[in-house]
Amino acid sequence: DGGITQSPKYLFRKEGQNVTLSCEQNLNHDAMYWYRQDPGQGLRLIYYSQIVNDFQKGDIAEGYSVSREKKESFPLTVTSAQKNPTAFYLCASSIASGNEQFFGPGTRLTVL
Amino acid sequence: GNSVTQMEGPVTLSEEAFLTINCTYTATGYPSLFWYVQYPGEGLQLLLKATKADDKGSNKGFEATYRKETTSFHLEKGSVQVSDSAVYFCALSDGNTGGFKTIFGAGTRLFVKA
Q: Which residues touch B53 (CB under 8 Å, ≥6 apart)?
């Protein structure tokens, strides 16, 4: 079955540590996205990638980094520079930018 | 810039009641419009979409009509079920102006009581 997988589902991190969230898709989509969702809030765009080896900052990129070395994979690193990283992180992909997006199940990150 | 405004929740209904969740938008071009649904602890799923004025998107008993004259895309369902309890997001994507981002509304939480 085609889809998007994110791992892990729950992640705990100590303050000051970097952590990497995985996102993989087998839909053959060119575009991939990372969003942050806080309790009771909408989605805020962190980074997006329209094609392999290229990515752009979204609205809240500070304290985050990404890579897009393969079409299928778009990992997100939450660095120690992110002041308030506890949130629910959603990865998504689409055939091309602007088309309907397919979402993964999310990773809930908690900083202890 | 582009934006999406949804009615604030939560919306609480009894089973079999009629549902309307209002959504209005501002856009400089000719956007595509979407409704996504998020069940507790999960990612979003596309519920329905419309790509041009007067189009009606429909799925699982939900409907929304793209109204350019009122810049609206209200979500409706004639008879809700307990299983419809979720958060609903209205969204737009404006490719005509070179837009690459999908703009999401803040979401409306729906509770359906048995």
A: B30, B66, B67, B68
Residue in chain A closest to B34 (alpha carbons) equals A100
> Nearest CA to CA, how far is B80 from chain A (Å)?
22
Mean pLDDT of all residues in chain B?
92
Beta strand spans in chain A (E): 4-7, 10-13, 19-25, 31-37, 43-51, 54-57, 64-66, 76-78, 87-94, 102-103, 107-111
* Longest Cα–Cα distance in chain A: 38
Query: H-helix or E-strand containing A106?
Result: none
pLDDT in tens, B69-82: 999 999 999 999 99
Asked whether the bond before A8 is cis by omega within 30 degrees of 0, the reply is: yes
Phi, psi angles (nearest 5°) of residue B61: 90, -10
Cβ(B91)–Cβ(B57) below 8 Å: no
Q: Which whole number is the average pLDDT over B34-47?
A: 94
Tokens 């199940």 found at: A105
Dihedral sign of CA atoms A76, A36, A54, A51 in order = positive
Assign B104 to helix, strand or coil: strand
A&B contacts, CB < 8 Å: 54
Q: Which two tokens stand for residue A59?
A: 């609205």
Closest CA–CA distance from residue B108 to any residue of chain A (Å): 9
Other Cβ atoms within 10 Å of B36 Cβ, number: 26
CA-wise closest residue to B93 among A37, A90, A99 = A99
